[in-house]
Amino acid sequence: xxxxxxxxxxxxxxxVLRALTxxxxxxxxxxxxxxxxxxxxxxSYETIYNYTLQAVxxxxxxxxxxxxxxxxxxxxxxxxxxxxxxxxxxAPHKRVLGVIRPSVEAIGEYSKNNHIGILGTHGTIHSxxxxxxxxxxxxxxxxxxEACPMWVxxxxxxxxxxxxxxxxxxxxxxNLFLKDPxxxxxxxxxTHYPLLIxxxxxxxxxxxxxxxxxxxxxxxxxxxxxxxxxxxRLCTRNGVRKFYTTESTDIFSTxxxxxxxxxxxxxxxxx
Length: 271
Ligand code: DGL
Known about the structure:
Elements: E1 4-8, H1 13-23, E2 29-33, H2 45-61, E3 66-69, H3 72-77, H4 79-90, E4 95-97, H5 100-107, E5 115-120, H6 122-127, H7 129-137, E6 142-147, H8 151-156, H9 163-179, E7 185-188, H10 197-203, E8 209-211, H11 213-227, H12 229-232, E9 241-245, H13 249-260, E10 267-268
Parallel strand pairs: 1-2, 1-3, 2-9, 3-4, 5-6, 5-7, 7-8, 9-10
Helix pairs in contact: 1-11, 2-4, 5-7
D-glutamic acid binds near residues 39, 41, 73, 121 and 191.
């Protein structure tokens, strides 16, 4: 089996996997959540790079030819180094893709007034990856960003539906809209954040459109596979989904089942 690998620090990438499996139901997918070491967002460049490379290497060992980093923090901090320095050495024919570039390509289609807001982890926001990439593709856009360092922890600890989460969502959105009250399009630049979407809607001005990455990334992946038949040909299509976590498999399975609406028996692995 040659599944498409989907990696995240924890549960957030499941929001991307759900969209990928809906768009490409016949393809095989393997998901790896490094829940034991999540969140990555406040960690150093070296740590995020090392953890991400370990995960990518493991997914290659599990048979993947193509790995999607369904994690903005890993995409911001580790993707380029892995693509440029590691792949030519460890697996020159395999491919690793991230979620920032496809999100930035899509973002230009949405805003009416060219005022964009980006929410992400500390690592993603301070890497400046979004403003730098947006500047290359959509010079007309004015970008404001806000790091939301608590939000991933709320999701990883299953606290995102509780009232305590309202405090942090309200606080970070207030900060963002103070930076630019004209924002009409908000990109959730972290794959965990769609789990907070109800609270995000509650504290966002009603005219703001909120973009999540699942559909954007799956559309871009379909396009990528069309443009790269040599990779597409290698991906097997038996509709298989496998789930690996570096943490407790029971907790992961229960949680992931809520997302994916299917019975899941996760497998433990160490990185
Ligand atoms: N889902 C990851 C992202 O998109 C969260 C990273 C973290 O663990 O902080 O950035």
